[in-house]
Amino acid sequence: MGSADVLGVEMGDLYYTSNEKSQSIAGLEGQNWIGGDKYFRYEFSFRIPFNEGITYEVLLNGQAYTKSLKPVPDPTDWETIRFIALSDSETEPRGRVTNRAWYPGQPLFRPFTIPELWKQKFGTTIEQGYEIPNYFLSETEGYSANLKTIIDRNPDFLVMPGDLVQGGGYMPAWDEFWRHNSGQFGTGLSTFAIVPAIGNWESFGGVNNGYATNERGQFNPVVGRSRFHSFFELDIDDPLQKHRQSYYRTDYGPITILTLDSSNGTPDERRSDYSDSQKNQKSGILRSWNRYARKFHSVRI
Length: 301
Fold this sequence. Notes:
The chain is of the alpha/beta class and 301 residues long. 23% of the residues lie in helices and 16% in strands. The chain has 6 helices and 11 strands. The longest helix is centred in the C-terminal third of the chain and has 20 residues, at 276-295.
C-alpha cells in the first residue's frame, strides 16, 4: 500500500477549560492527566479488500507505532463473526481511585456483615438506607480487566451503546477513554473496529457546569456531541440535520447495526417529561424496532 506524509489538522473543539486544568482529585496528588494545549488529527484514508488484513505503522516525532487491523469479511462469503457489546465505561481520571458500590441486586442487602478490613480498604456506599460494600477493583482496574478479556476473545468489532465517557464536554474523560483503548492502559481499538453510540453522559460537562454552558459560553451537550463526532467520523446522509447525527446505520460483513439515542442531549428522562402523544410515538418506534429485530433474530453468527 506504500506510505504517505500526513499533515495534522488542529481540532478546535478539543480543548481544556481552566476548571479542568486546575482540578484536584483526592488520591491523585502529584499526577498529571492533562495533555497538550492543542489536539491534532492525522487522517489517512484507504480501502482494504474483503477478507484481507493490514499491518500499519505510524511515525510521529521520532516514535513508531505498529499494529495490525483485522480483515473484514465479505458479506456473501463468511464463516464466523464475533463481536462484543460493552456499555457504560464512563471513563475519567477519578476512576483510578474510585471503587463503586458492589450492588447485590434486589433487595439491596446481603445475608452477612461487611468485614471491617474491607470497609477500611475499599469503602462502602449507602443506598436506600443499606450499607453496600464497594468493589475491590477501582473503575480503572475493572475496565482494564474487562478490556483484557475482550482482547483475549479476539473480536472482529466492539459495540459500545453509549456512555463511553464520564462527560463528553469534559476533555480529561476522553483522554482516559483513549488511554484505555489505544494508549497507556490498552490498545484494543488499534486492532479491531468500534461501533459507538451516543449516550446521555456524552452530553455531560463534568466540572464545566454539568449539562449547562462552560466558561466559553458553549452548551455542554453540543460540545460533547461535537467531540464524539470528532473522534468517530460517521458517514451520515443528513444534510438538513434533522436527526443531528444522533443515530446511524453501519454494516460489518452480513451484519447491520443500528444505533439509537434517546437522551436528546439532556439528563436522564422520565415518562412524566412527555405528553401522551409523545409517549405513544416513542412506543410506536419501539414496536417497529422490535419487529425489525425479530426479522433478523434467526441469523446465526
